[in-house]
Design brief:
By secondary structure, the protein is α+β, with helices and mostly antiparallel strands. The protein has one domain (about 1-85). It has helices at about 15-40, 70-85, and strands spanning about 1-5, 50-55, 60. The chain has a three-stranded mixed beta sheet with strand order 1-2-3. Strand 1, helix 1 and strand 2 (about 50-55) form a beta-alpha-beta unit. About 10% of the residues are buried.
Length: about 90
């Protein structure tokens, strides 16, 4: 699984820390989501999944770098289940 960080402006250590914190919350959530959709299939290599993360607008998209058959399989529920809860707030 790969994340493409969409960041406007200059990256600084504080912003990098925010991205790391977001990734630590996103990665298990997306992994559980993917496992639920590919559970009965033969092994799916999650390295084929790419996600664009817009830090400013607090949104995650399935990247076009992800194989189309995988996109088609997850796109219907992705926004609701992944973007439907706030993972961007940093404690």
């Amino acid at each position: 699984m790969k994340f493409n960080w969409l960041i406007s402006g200059d990256t600084n250590p504080a912003l990098k820390k925010v991205c790391i914190d977001i990734e630590y919350r996103l990665r298990p959530k997306i992994t559980k989501f993917l496992l639920a959709r590919f559970d009965n299939d033969s092994f799916v290599d999650f390295s084929n999944f790419h996600f664009d993360v817009d830090v400013k607008n607090q949104w995650v998209w399935i990247s076009e770098k992800t194989p189309k058959d995988f996109i088609d399989r997850i796109k219907e529920d992705f926004d609701k289940e992944i973007n439907g809860t706030s993972f961007f707030s940093v404690a």
